[in-house]
Predict the structure.
Amino acid sequence: MDLVLLEKTLLGLFVAVIVAIAISKFRGKRFKLPPGPLPVPVFGNWLQVGDDLNHRNLFDLAKKFGDIFLLRMGQRNLVVVSSPELSKEVLHTQGVEFGSRTRNVVFDIFTGKGQDMVFTVYGEHWRKMRRIMTVPFFTNKVVQQYRHGWEYEAAMVVEDVKKNPEAATSGTVLRRRLQLMMYNNMYRIMFDRRFESEDDPLFVKLKALNGERSRLAQSFEYNYGDFIPILRPFLRGYLKICKEVKERRLQLFKDYFVEERKKLASTKSMDNEGLKCAIDHILDAQQKGEINEDNVLYIVENINVAAIETTLWSIEWGIAELVNHPEIQKKLRHELDTVLGPGHQITEPDTHKLPYLQAVIKETLRLRMAIPLLVPHMNLHDAKLGGYDIPAESKILVNAWWLANNPAQWKNPEEYRPERFLEEESKVEASGNDFRYLPFGVGRRSCPGIILALPILGITLGRLVQNFELLPPPGQSKLDTTEKGGQFSLHILKHSTIVCKPRSF
């Protein structure tokens, strides 16, 4: 370490300690703060709780401090809520007060400091972006316009797996082919484009850049510099890599997709609204001066991350649970064969006639929630919550996983049992009609992608179960479902090898 940098850092730490003590005493008199572990100057609770603030670790803290508690992570206040009542306050009753988003040093890079929709603060920019994105992405009209494409992509997965002789014997990493399917599903909507194979050079490049973006953003490695600003000089190398990846991704989106669509639009009439893809609508908004070119690219950035990977994680979890619970897989297959008839491949309208399939999806989203803490919320101004004062710009985490896995609220929650959604929890929906079950959040900042994710999950899982007996690889009785978490994501640690034994009709 540079001697001058070390000297400045130590001086900065000393000054920060004095300031932190002064602020702590001042705020202690002013605020009635939620309970939590005793913080130390500068570092707060960071040295006690560490970087990995995952849903299980936060649940352990909730057992000690209650349904609302406060962590001071360096200079950041982090409030965690773990009850349906408090979650309703954050997401619904006080949805405006807690409707903003916190970002961090890395997300600031990848979103242009909130020029996107997902991570911008609650206000006029968010309302404008939400309005612009809703029509081309998040309506029933979009589902009906593109569902034939989703059915085709699922059929291509089945066809490709059947062509692979190893899939039926030693097995295949199904996720790789499903990843191509999900890119094609979303790129059809965004750009009216698809990739022919996993070896498509543009797909390989796009997937690699998106994967690097996810790795950098979801890592816990940069938390120390985010929590304690005076330590940020040590993040220079990390942040430089983030900026390089961001620039390369946005340039790729622009050169290969946005500009190509502009050229096509200049040579073809786009008068027929039904023929427009999402980027046409978004470029219309840019031409009207509602958004700028950067906003267009950050919308594409949001869809690449939020819509593709999260749905893929849920599909992967669903397959793993069906493999590990063959009796549930058999029951689902029986429903598909009985209701649709052997050989009738499931379509989007069929998913609404299959209650057990819907229960399997709900149970997968309950036990294996892709975003277990939801996307963090923030209050721009001082607020009240649960009888406590919440200082302005606090990061609010809703432990949605615990809400859906609390044994005081759910019968045997550790058990994968779709039947619960046909029996005691039959009225609970993924749309957030019950604050014990919020896989997509609820309220103003809920995930609008629910309207796309649920039918895609139904079509994909349905087609796989109809066409294959899904089994663990030879020598294994079950798949490894160890979890891997990120800043607020949850996916399977090891991409599973699945034996896909074709069925004869």
Notes: Residues 104 and 226 are 6 Å apart (CA to CA). The domain at 31-502 is CATH 1.10.630.10 (Cytochrome p450).
